[in-house]
From TrEMBL:
It comes from Catenovulum adriaticum. Pfam families: UPF0102. It comes from the Bacteria. InterPro entries: Restrct_endonuc-II-like (IPR011335), tRNA_endonuc-like_dom_sf (IPR011856), UPF0102_YraN-like (IPR003509). Belongs to the UPF0102 family. This is UPF0102 protein OLW01_13270. PANTHER family: UPF0102 PROTEIN YRAN.
């Protein structure tokens, strides 16, 4: 993939992540961190919903010919997000046994206004 295409995909992805963040904020979910990266993976949004720390994966698909955005989250992707979340918790000195956590997904199929929030997705 050319660098220009990679940069364009990143900019487009950031737009969808911002739409998801705005959507969640209207639901009372506060963003703590965006695009957390570590050697184990990436987390699009890390949020706070009440007492719960929420790790959010944002997925977009232009059309549903390949199953839509929700079906694009493979078991391997789920494992990567979970490993990155555990790394984040360790880095922040948060004991997973004393903190409620959840893995959510915000999907966008087609139009950027067509958002679906899946709580406890995996």
């Amino acid at each position: 993939m050319h660098l220009k295409n990679l940069l364009n995909k990143r900019i487009i992805g950031q737009g969808y992540e911002k739409a998801a963040e705005t959507f969640l904020a209207k639901k009372g979910v506060t963003t703590i961190e965006r695009n957390f990266n570590c050697k184990l993976g990436e987390i699009d949004l890390i949020c706070q919903a009440g007492e719960t720390l929420v790790f959010v994966e944002v997925r977009y698909r232009n059309n549903k010919s390949h199953g839509g955005a929700a079906s694009s989250i493979s078991p391997a992707k789920q494992r990567k997000v979970k490993k990155a979340a555990l790394f984040y918790l360790q880095q922040q000195n948060i004991n997973v046994n004393h903190c409620a956590i959840r893995f959510d997904v915000v999907t966008i199929d087609g139009e950027i206004t067509n958002l679906n929030w899946i709580k406890n997705a995996f």
